[in-house]
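yo

u said u wanted the structure for the complex thing, so here. seqs first:
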Amino acid sequence: MGSKKKAAPFNGTPEQEKQLKEVIASLKDDKGCLMPIMQHAQEIYGYLPIEVQTMIAEGTGFPLEKVYGVATFYAQFSLYPKGKYKISVCLGTACYVKGSGDIYDKLIEKLGIEGGECTPDGKFSLEACRCIGACGLAPVMTINDDVYGRLTPDMLDDILAKYAD
Amino acid sequence: MKTLEELNAVRAQMEGEVALRTHDSSSSKYERHVLVCGGTGCTSSGSMKIIETLEKEIAENGLKDKVQVVKTGCFGLCALGPIMIVYPEGTFYSMMSVDHIPRIVKEHLLGGNPVKEYLYDETVDGDNIKALDETAFYKKQHRVALRNCGVINPECINEYIGRGGYEALGKVLKEMTPDEVVQTILDSGLRGRGGGGFPTGMKWKLAKNIVQGGQKYVCCNADEGDPGAFMDRSVLEGDPHVVLEAMAIAGYAIGANQGYIYVRAEYPIAVQRLEIAIKQARENGLLGENIFGTDFSFDIGLRLGAGAFVCGEETALMTSIEGNRGEPRPRPPFPAEKGLFGKPTLLNNVETYANIPQIILNGAEWFASMGTEKSRGTKVFAVGGKINNTGLVEIPMGTTLRTVIEEIGGGIPNGKKFKAAQTGGPSGGCIPAEHLDIPIDYDNLISIGSMMGSGGLIVMDEDNCMVDIAKFFLQFTVDESCGKCTPCRVGTRRLLEILDKITKGQGTLEDIDKLEELCYYIKANALCGLGQTAPNPVLSTLKYFRNEYIAHVVDKKCEAGVCRDLLSYEIVKDNCIGCGMCAKQCPAGAISRTDYVAPGKKLAAMEIDKTKCVKCGACMGVCKPKAIIKK
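structre next:
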């Protein structure tokens, strides 16, 4: 699936770089600092392209392959940019037995992208997640910080329409 | 707060306020407290807006000095959220909406008359209104770990102190030796609530007895990765201080001065509340140097996970805190000997810690008096799936599954038939109806091919296909396998492929045998607990629902109507009114009109060309007379 994803050219700003350097300076002497630094870096840039990983490696003294190893191990670290609106469908057990698989399939059909991809206009990205803990509202999906619960496939058009801009 | 006396003073001041929430209004400066759930479930359904509107209405009606609004953690009944409780009465408003607030403020908070139509149905019986704790959902529960959840404001340390918080820490530091603390935990019979059920006191003893004079660590596993389990999240969101207090007690018992909490980044509210709690505890001298003026010092750091299920395994969790790929390593050496950063480490789960302060305060005997002989105390379950009262339930060990599902859980929705309950997440198994009366404890669940796990309990009805469920869990394991050992990395993928073949109607009876054989091989050879238990969903469904596997393989049928490749859609011509809606919906152009007009109908019936049908089910959704069937 990796080959299908086209990485947009990296266009980090000097402000972002300055922020990252501050984070590295403040955390790098803590034990086990690599993951917290990478989490901050992803907050700053939205994703962790090789350019950002290189900056982290140089700033902390960890070899680049270690940074890359950690970046590829954890599901939350993304090497590719995400959409302006990140759609995340819960495929945890409680949601799955209540039909979240159908919701996910419908979104793949409607957006024309697979899970883990981003629409060509950069607007929506789609991913499956495992339980956000809102099992009482199953099936659930989130779009950025908004949570939508008790979903049925026919609600999706109205929900997506809210993110028209 | 440097002394116990200061702690007691805060407690005395707060006790009256929090007592209002146990129906005792005698010493509160407010007439009423309105508690609104600020847990993940209710926040998702809009409880923050409710709080905002409530505060505005209360101010406008001049009630500010009489009514206090409290944002609490989870009440447990997530299916009915957003939830709002009015004390001292304990009146239970469910599925709240912002539009309900003005009436409730005027009629109830100002006028003293609860607005019946907004109350939870079960609490209204004519003129008689039942309190929250008298409902079927709460009555059979016994709350120890969840004692403060939905009672206190988790962002206010003084409310926690008002409920007896940090008293247990004071007691161990002033009155008990580390050996006595360990002995108390041993005597209580508490076993690890995160999955395996290892005796907690034994873990503490092992970590304590390692003498090398150097650094030791106390860790909290809050990487609740089982899909469908959210009890640890609720404790962290509703009562974060209990975990901090218990970790400090553990630190004193084993001789550690530093703790780490490893929490999922998917739980932003829990992370935020923990940050607040740690800050408040430090400001009050309850974490840091020389706690309560003794020579005991202890501090806690927070580490966020990044979405890897395997990090719930103890050795992987510690590897992850160290900043590496979270891969497990073989044991021994056990963490008590060589754990985090190579130092002796004690690691317990959130719910386990949540029991500790109560055990210290009430004694080992009190705790051991609850539950069954080998599984003492209570257990929290996150009940979800096809059940009416989805939510969080804490029951004494030994309660039957039937009680949990039928009485507390309120049964299965839409009159459907119970098929199985899944416990233990991807490491557990499916329990069929014939075992519903077995008392729940660690050993009984293992004897019927499942396990306690962290406490997820997903109910399935006749519309769920058990082969599909096994496939679902294997998909999860394949995605989450860290790849370090071959039995798990390759073996689970082979299992998934066989299951996929079966659900597509291409399986053979020989495949079922192969499936079973491979399961036992993986169980015996995988490196860590997650790999060793990964085949359990397959083995337990094979054990209890083998006929479903055989139906998929031999008859090419999925009785539950889930496995798409085995389904066919048909129009019952005598019920068809010929409206043609189905043909308009069909994306494959598979539906056309016949010449047959059913008796009493005006238009000719439709039919589906099975060679063109893509089995999307769109036609069934639009058919008004329900003439389309799936078999």
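Chain B touches chain A through 55 residues (CB under 8 Å). Chain B has a mean pLDDT of 94.
cya
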